[in-house]
Amino acid sequence: DQQVKQNSPSLSVQEGRISILNCDYTNSMFDYFLWYKKYPAEGPTFLISISSIKDKNEDGRFTVFLNKSAKHLSLHIVPSQPGDSAVYFCAASDGAGSYQLTFGKGTKLSVIP
Amino acid sequence: EAGVTQFPSHSVIEKGQTVTLRCDPISGHDNLYWYRRVMGKEIKFLLHFVKESKQDESGMPNNRFLAERTGGTYSTLKVQPAELEDSGVYFCASSDGVAGRTGEQFFGPGTRLTVL
Fold it and tell me: C or N terminus of chain A, fewer CB within 10 Å?
C-alpha cells in the first residue's frame, strides 16, 4: 500500500508559467516532506523540504505548501524554465528512529520553450 | 567535494548468478542508505547503515540480499543468487547526522541491474 502518492505521471507547462506538482500521503507519522528532482541517468537530487510544523517553505523559484489536515503537499515552480524539465519525486520521512525515505512514483515535468 | 559514487553503472547477469554492487559515500557521512527502483514503480528503501552498523534493514526483500559496510566507509550490496525480479536501478545515498534526521540525502547515480 503506497503511503506517498503522486497521481499525475506527467505534466507539461509553458516556459515562464507556474508548474504545480501534487503529492498526497497517508501516514500521519511523517514529520518531514521533501521534493527530489531527477534527470535521466542520474540519482535524485534534493530540492526543497518542509517540516510538518510548517505550512510553507520557499527557496527562490521553488515553494512547497503543506496541508496537514488534507495530507497533501504541493511544489510550485515559478517561473518555470526548460532546465526544470525532469522527474520530480515527493518523499517523506518519519524521522522517529529510521531515516528511511518513502517515495512517490514521480511526476515527469516538461517545460516547453 | 566528490559526491556519492557507485560501481558499476550497469550490470547484466543471468538468473542464478551473483552480483556485487559498490557504493562510496561522501567523505565524512556516517549514514549510508540503499534504495531500489523497479521499472515503473517508486524508489523503495532497502537499508540504512550508521557507520558500520545496520540501523534499519526493514526494506531488504529476502536473504538473497547481503549488505556490508566494513570499516564504516564504502558499502557493498551482494545479490546471490539473482532472480529476474531483482532487475532495477539500485541507488546508494549518504548523509550526515543532521541532514539524515530531516531527510536530506545525497544520492549516487545508481547501478542499473538487469537479470536475464
Answer: N
Nearest CA in chain A to B96: A99
Lowest mean pLDDT: which of A46-55, B28-37, B79-88, B94-103? B94-103
For residue A15 the three cell numbers come to 516556459
The CA distance from A102 to the nearest CA of chain B, in Å, is 7
Question: pLDDT tens digits, residue range B44-74?
Answer: 999 999 999 999 999 999 999 999 998 889 9
Q: How many CB atoms lie within 10 A of CB A79?
A: 14
* Residues of chain A with C-beta less than 8 angstroms from the C-beta of B107: 36, 43-45
Cα-based distances in Å from B53 to A10, B36, B73, B75, B114: 39, 20, 11, 11, 29
Q: Closest partner residue to B31 among A34, A97, A99, by Cβ?
A: A99
